[in-house]
């Protein structure tokens, strides 16, 4: 299989919308570069061409190009640069590094799924989760990817966690990670649209939504329906500059901000459902 990268340069005003469309269209996370380029991937040239065609049909103003990637062993390449990270009482580490002797540990191998603790949005969500999760909480994790946040929640004392993810392969990765951490009995992963499933698996004491801002905004009614009154929601996946855009939307939707963090330009916020 020869993978191709698709570079997408939408107008600044459409960047969030195009990013959300790419996530929904491909079922995978996108790379967001400082120059405004969004990067996604296709498993072959035909898939890249199909995605380019769909992008051009969606918006005539978006600039797109494709490029072949060097042939590498992607079964191991995903390991590059991943290291152990500490979040208060919690350490997140890959399986090939020695686990610390003290504190709580989550061992996560993301493979092809999003969520290793290396991205600022995941780190922001983990920092808030470690601060605010209470023993016995029921947790819903939207866009659960590698399962890192669901698994961390149970390791921190949650009674159980339900991850919701569009990508079937990510759920298989997440299930393997849950088994490796000894929490498979307390975590389950569902394949489907969070807008439909979040209200059904609730009411949750704590909801995690580490997704793009535009998707978080679209999911607010479902998140509110899936959180118990007074429950906490941790939103992440947004750049620091987006905070001023998201705060008023939260207030209008009936959420009160309690805490926030930034990490490498990424912003996470904990808000209470009124």
Q: Can you summarize this structure?
A:
The protein is α/β, with parallel strands linked by helices and 274 residues long. It folds into two domains: 4-68, Alpha-Beta Plaits, CATH 3.30.70; 79-273, Rossmann fold. It has helices at residues 15-26, 45-58, 74-77, 120-132, 148-155, 168-180, 194-201, 213-226, 243-252; strands at residues 4-9, 31-32, 38-42, 63-68, 85-87, 90-93, 104-107, 138-142, 160-165, 187-191, 204-210, 227-239, 255-263, 266-273.
Task: Outline the fold blueprint.
Layout lengths: L3 E6 L5 H12 L4 E2 L5 E5 L2 H14 L4 E6 L5 H4 L7 E3 L2 E4 L10 E4 L12 H13 L5 E5 L5 H8 L4 E6 L2 H13 L6 E5 L2 H8 L2 E7 L2 H14 E13 L3 H10 L2 E9 L2 E8 L1
Parallel strand pairs: 6-7, 8-9, 8-11, 9-10, 11-12
Antiparallel strand pairs: 1-3, 1-4, 2-3, 5-6, 12-14, 13-14
Provide structural commentary.
This protein is an alpha/beta fold and 274 residues long. It folds into two domains: 4-68, Alpha-Beta Plaits, CATH 3.30.70; 79-273, Vaccinia Virus protein VP39 (Rossmann fold). It is built from nine helices and 14 strands. It has helices at residues 15-26, 45-58, 74-77, 120-132, 148-155, 168-180, 194-201, 213-226, 243-252; strands spanning 4-9, 31-32, 38-42, 63-68, 85-87, 90-93, 104-107, 138-142, 160-165, 187-191, 204-210, 227-239, 255-263, 266-273. The strands form three sheets. A seven-stranded mixed beta sheet has the order 10-9-8-11-12-14-13, sandwiched between helices. The longest helix is centred in the N-terminal third of the chain and has 14 residues, at 45-58. The radius of gyration is 18 Å and the shape is globular. The model has no long low-confidence stretch (mean pLDDT 88).
């Amino acid at each position: 299989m020869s993978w191709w990268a698709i570079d997408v340069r939408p107008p600044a005003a459409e960047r969030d919308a195009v990013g959300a469309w790419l996530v929904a269209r491909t079922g995978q996370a996108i790379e967001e570069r400082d120059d405004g380029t969004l990067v996604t991937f296709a498993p072959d040239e035909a898939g890249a061409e199909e995605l380019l065609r769909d992008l051009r049909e969606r918006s005539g103003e978006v600039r797109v190009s494709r490029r072949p990637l060097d042939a590498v062993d992607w079964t191991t390449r995903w390991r590059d640069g991943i290291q152990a990270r500490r979040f208060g009482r919690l350490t997140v580490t890959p399986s090939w590094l020695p686990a610390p002797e003290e504190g709580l540990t989550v061992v996560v191998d993301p493979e092809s799924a999003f969520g290793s603790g290396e991205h600022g949005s995941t780190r922001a969500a983990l920092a808030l989760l470690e601060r605010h999760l209470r023993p016995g909480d029921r947790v819903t994790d939207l866009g659960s990817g590698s399962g890192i946040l669901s698994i961390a929640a149970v390791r921190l004392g949650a009674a159980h966690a339900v991850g919701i993810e569009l990508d079937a392969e990510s759920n298989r990765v997440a299930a393997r990670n849950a088994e490796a951490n000894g929490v498979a009995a307390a975590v389950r992963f569902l394949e489907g649209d969070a807008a439909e499933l979040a209200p059904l698996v609730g009411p949750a004491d704590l909801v995690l939504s580490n997704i793009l801002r535009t998707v978080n905004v679209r999911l607010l009614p479902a998140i509110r329906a899936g959180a118990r009154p007074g429950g906490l929601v941790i939103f992440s996946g947004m750049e620091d500059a987006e905070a001023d855009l998201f705060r008023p939307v939260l207030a209008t939707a009936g959420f009160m901000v309690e805490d926030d963090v930034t990490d490498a330009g990424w912003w996470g916020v904990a808000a209470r459902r009124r």
